[in-house]
Design goal:
The chain is of the alpha+beta class and 316 residues long. It is built from nine helices and twelve strands. It is 37% helix and 19% strand. The structure holds flavin-adenine dinucleotide.
């Protein structure tokens, strides 16, 4: 990676954010919010069975958030199922595997003191049994020992373009941020950057006394790009290019073109947005093809290239 990836334990990352909020003057209450009523002069909340009042409420309850003043919950077509294992082992490689005609992917990510092996797939397209079957096959193929491993399953948003464009995320005295506002990359499933950025944009809109300006600012910086990603997601996972799967062609280009590797590095580190990706791809198409062709004629020219999973056929 040109820009290194930072790996945090969630407890540490969330703790750092809470510490900052406390240092800035917030009082934190660790309790479940069971009701939010935004119809009165002040917002009325039930927190751990107690009534509280607020001028404004920010709902950041994640993908399954059910506190919905004046908007709808995210449905199966806007959600992705994840399943995985926390495996008590160490690794220094990130592995990604694509499956045939499958909208999602399998991963093995090194964490601070374990490896997270998992799969994500569109909830409306793939059953949890199918996900588990693919995941368990990957575990066998990759020779991963599940001794002491812990199974997990979560839901995350995988928003459709029209959900990002039309779903209401702000009212006169409430707003949503992060997963609750469906701010997640529909291709990679990454949402941490968008959760932080949406919170930041909302905070600035509130400080300026213009909560209504929040959706437009979010759209300009985040949602328009995510909408674009939502429109191309199916093509990325299930489309075909030059007679093969897009994912297969992608892995082949990664192995044989340094220029294409740079581009994908930038996509995964967030330095390259989706909207200008097509322009950049076409602008460097000639050099990518030249590098690809050269590596067949002279295989030494791609000696620093990463190898595909298992060292054999590209995974797809
Ligand atoms: C398995 C998995 C792996 C992922 N890996 C990555 C990754 O590597 N990189 C990345 O960028 N993104 C990743 N994501 C996505 C990322 O986790 C989310 O996009 C991000 O955490 C969203 O932050 P959030 O604060 O909006 O929601 P969440 O992190 O879901 O936080 C919501 C919080 O609200 C609390 N809550 C919910 N309801 C209530 C209530 N009624 N009262 C009080 N509290 C409530 C919950 O307990 C939770 O603490 C992953 C997601 C999954 C499921």
């Amino acid at each position: 990676m040109n820009h290194p990836i930072v790996i945090y334990s969630r407890a540490v990352l969330n703790g750092l954010l809470l510490d900052r909020a406390t240092a800035a003057g917030c009082t934190t209450i660790r309790s479940r919010v069971s009701q939010v009523d935004t119809n009165g002069a002040r917002v009325n909340l039930v927190v751990g069975g107690e009534q509280k009042f607020a001028d404004f409420v920010v709902l950041a309850g994640g993908a399954r958030n059910q506190l919905l003043p004046g908007t709808t919950a995210l449905g199966a077509a806007d959600l992705e199922m994840t399943q995985g294992y926390f495996v008590p082992t160490e690794d220094d490689h990130i592995k990604i595997k694509f499956l045939k005609q499958f909208e999602g992917y399998i991963w093995s990510f090194p964490r601070a003191d374990h490896v997270s092996v998992g799969i994500c797939g569109k909830m409306s397209k793939h059953s949890s049994q199918t996900l588990r079957r693919h995941l368990d096959q990957f575990v066998i193929d990759e020779n991963i020992s599940l001794d002491g491993a812990r199974f997990y399953s979560h839901v995350l948003p995988s928003p459709q373009a029209h959900t990002l464009r039309r779903r209401r995320i702000v009212g006169p005295n409430w707003a949503m941020a992060g997963d609750a506002a469906a701010c997640v990359d529909p291709i990679t499933g990454e949402g941490l950057f968008y959760a932080l950025r949406s919170g930041d944009l909302l905070a600035h809109a509130l400080i300026a006394g213009q909560p209504d300006a929040y959706p437009a600012r979010l759209r300009a910086e985040v949602s328009a790009d995510l909408e674009f990603a939502a429109r191309i997601a199916r093509k990325v996972f299930c489309g075909r290019f030059l007679g093969g799967a897009v994912t297969t062609r992608m892995v082949q280009l990664l192995n044989h073109s340094a220029t294409f590797r740079d581009l994908i590095r930038d996509v995964f580190s967030g330095a390259q947005d989706y909207r200008s990706l097509k322009r950049r791809m076409w602008a460097q198409f000639g050099i990518t093809v030249a590098e690809f062709t050269k590596s067949f004629v002279d295989p030494r020219s791609c000696k620093d290239a990463p190898q595909p999973l298992g060292g054999g056929e590209p995974a797809s």
